[in-house]
Each structure stands twice: as structure tokens, then as C-alpha cells.
Specification:
Strand order of the largest sheet: 3-4-5-6-9-10-14
Shape: elongated
CATH superfamily of the largest domain: 2-enoyl-CoA Hydratase, Chain A, domain 1
Helix content: 25-40%
Number of helices: 12
Radius of gyration: 22 Å
Number of domains: 2
Number of strands: 14
CATH architecture of the largest domain: Alpha-Beta Complex
CATH class of the largest domain: Alpha Beta
Distance between the termini: 28 Å
Length: 345
């Protein structure tokens, strides 16, 4: 099967597809001015200071003294990278065109990406009915089991009506496993429409507020989001959703909808904990670019999963050695759960 594009490259494309923020002509290209613009822009617009409890003033105190008239762009990029890494927010990036790209909070994710093998799943577990040529999705039937399988590498189906066809193909099974491991996100609305094929009732799931003022707690009015049934097909039998630490963004938003269903169980590892949309890309006088989170997602009780992620109902994680041996321990744990809880083989 075709190997997925390296996620950092996917993130980097965000900087070539959005409207520019143009700096005023009077902005001078000095290390100190680049630093001040960078810090102050985050201070006035970044959306998760109050949610995550970060002290951005302390970051200025720590790094401002390291910036001198002799500071090189190479050194400044390192400083910016360390500053945003403190935020531990994978929706926050700094980019030096043609040179470097850094995503906050991405450390350790490469190993997690190696703990899933779609080749292994196809070879040892699933008879595939259909898959995308760019590996956006894959679905089929587990061999010798009354369980369907649906893997999403991202939340970016061109036609969400495909989910109706998928359920026509595998919805006769007594259970479905939705695999969101290594899911790199995409469009929230697509995840909502996919999840709508499994939802039975309407309920308030979360609210979203966008940062709209200079104070860290300045936000616009809450916008409420409800679960709702969508599509011509609907599956109301047990569902297991598999996750790992790479599962992010629209994948996590989709999981907000799926986990509102009583018959859905999350198995795997905690998700990334990065829900917010990003603002438009920003430009510095030295040509560096960056983006950051601009909003907060809150559960109905006022708590946030940003920086926390979806905690699985049952923890399970593969090792690279498991994959090399031809075993997907997370899938096997899902099989055991469905057998013990529902008698489904």
C-alpha cells in the first residue's frame, strides 16, 4: 500500500494555502523587533492561554534576554521553536521558508506513527472492500468475525455520502471498529457528517469561542454544537473506536460526537488534545511565518479537552516489536472486548 505522506509536510502545506497577513512597511528587520512582534501577536490573539494555564509573560522573561543585535535568524528560529513548544499545541507552527519547519508538541509522535501498519491489517486481519488511492480511508470485513472495519487516515472525504455506502457494505455486522489511529485531522464538518450515521439522538456536545480581544480571557459568544442523525444509513449496534496519540483535531472533534453514543467504546491511547482551528498565517520582517490556535472548545460542564485529549475507556498500545511480529495488540484488545461485553466474535 502507498505510504502516507510525512505529517510535518502535510502541516507545512498550510502555509501555502491561506491568505497572508501583510506587515506594515515601517516594520524593521531586527532580531529584537522580530521577537517583539512574535511574542506580542501570540499575547493578543492565541486562544488557549486560559484553557491550558500557560504563563506567556514568563516565556518573554526567559527568552527576551537571549535576543541581541547579533542574534542570527538560525538562532531566532530556535528561540521561536522553544517558545511555542512550551505551549504543547500541535496547531501552532513556525516556518522558515525553504529552511525549517517546527510544530509545537510533536516530539515523540514519530514512534507512535510506526505503531500502526495498514499493510499488516490488510495482510492479517481484513478483507478490503474499498480503499482510497491516497489512503484517505479503507474499509472491509474482519476475516472469520462478524465485525466490520473502517479506517480513516484523515477527516477529508470528498463525499461524506460514502459513509452511507460503507454502512450498506459492512453494516450487517454485529459491530464495527472505526480506526482513527494516526488520523491527521481535516475538516470538522466532515467528521460530524460521518459520525451522524451512528447517532440516534440530539444533545449538546460542546461550545466554541474565538479569541476576540487583547486580554487572554477575551472571547466571542459561545457557539453551541449538537449531535444529530445524518444520512440515509444508520448503525446502532456496538462500535469500537481505536485511537493513539497522533489522533488529532477533526479526528478528535469527530470523537466528541461518537463518544456521546452509549454503544461506542474508545480503545487505544489518549488522543493528541488539540481541537482549536488555527488563524491565518502570520509574517515576520525576516520572512519567517507562523500560525496558532485561536479558539477554545468547552464541554457542556465548562471543562476542556485541549491539552488533555480523549482518554480511552480501555488502554492499549502497540509496540514496534508487535508490528514487526505481525500482531496488532490494539485490534486484538478490541476483539476481546466485543466478545466479553457483547458476545460478538
Amino acid at each position: 500500500m502507498k505510504k502516507l505522506l510525512f505529517p510535518i509536510l502535510l502541516l507545512a502545506t498550510l502555509f501555502t494555502s491561506c491568505q497572508k497577513i501583510i506587515l506594515g512597511e515601517d516594520e524593521v528587520n531586527t532580531p529584537k523587533n522580530n521577537f517583539d512582534i512574535f511574542w506580542e501577536d501570540f499575547d493578543r490573539h492565541y486562544g488557549l492561554f486560559t484553557v491550558r494555564g500557560w504563563d506567556w509573560d514568563s516565556i518573554r522573561m526567559e527568552y527576551e534576554g537571549q535576543v541581541t543585535p547579533e542574534t542570527t535568524d538560525e538562532e531566532l528560529f530556535t528561540i521561536f521553536s522553544e517558545m511555542i513548544d512550551y505551549l504543547d499545541d500541535r496547531h501552532t507552527f513556525v516556518y522558515w521558508p525553504g529552511r525549517k519547519f517546527f510544530a509545537s508538541g510533536d516530539a515523540g509522535r514519530d514512534q507512535v506513527r510506526e505503531e500502526l501498519s495498514l499493510d499488516l491489517i490488510v495482510r492479517n486481519y481484513v478483507d478490503v472492500r474499498d480503499s482510497s488511492s491516497v489512503e484517505e480511508y479503507l474499509y472491509g470485513d474482519f476475516r472469520g468475525r462478524d465485525i466490520g472495519y473502517f479506517h480513516l487516515s484523515g477527516i477529508d472525504l470528498e463525499d461524506t455520502g460514502l459513509t452511507d455506502q460503507i454502512l450498506r457494505d459492512i453494516g450487517h455486522h454485529q459491530a464495527i471498529i472505526i480506526d482513527l489511529r494516526n488520523n491527521t485531522g481535516g475538516a470538522d464538518q466532515i467528521g460530524v457528517e460521518i459520525a451522524g450515521r451512528f447517532i440516534q439522538e440530539e444533545k449538546l456536545l460542546y461550545t466554541v469561542q474565538e479569541r476576540n480581544g487583547p486580554k487572554h480571557d477575551d472571547f466571542a459568544e459561545k457557539k453551541e454544537y449538537f449531535s444529530r442523525r445524518i444520512g440515509t444509513e444508520n448503525f446502532n449496534k456496538p462500535v469500537v473506536v481505536l485511537t493513539d496519540q497522533v489522533t488529532i483535531s477533526a479526528g478528535e472533534v469527530m470523537l466528541l460526537y461518537l463518544k456521546s453514543i452509549a454503544t461506542v467504546t474508545q480503545i487505544g491511547d489518549v488522543t493528541s488534545g488539540d481541537f482549536s482551528d488555527t488563524g491565518m498565517r502570520r509574517f515576520l520582517p525576516n520572512g519567517m511565518q507562523y500560525r496558532y490556535s485561536i479558539m477554545k472548545f468547552l464541554l457542556p460542564d465548562g471543562t476542556s479537552l485541549d491539552g488533555v485529549g480523549h482518554v480511552p475507556d480501555i488502554y492499549a498500545r502497540n509496540t514496534v516489536e508487535d508490528i514487526a511480529a505481525g500482531n496488532d495488540v490494539v485490534l486484538e484488545r478490541a476483539f476481546t472486548f466485543l466478545l466479553e461485553e457483547y458476545g460478538i466474535r
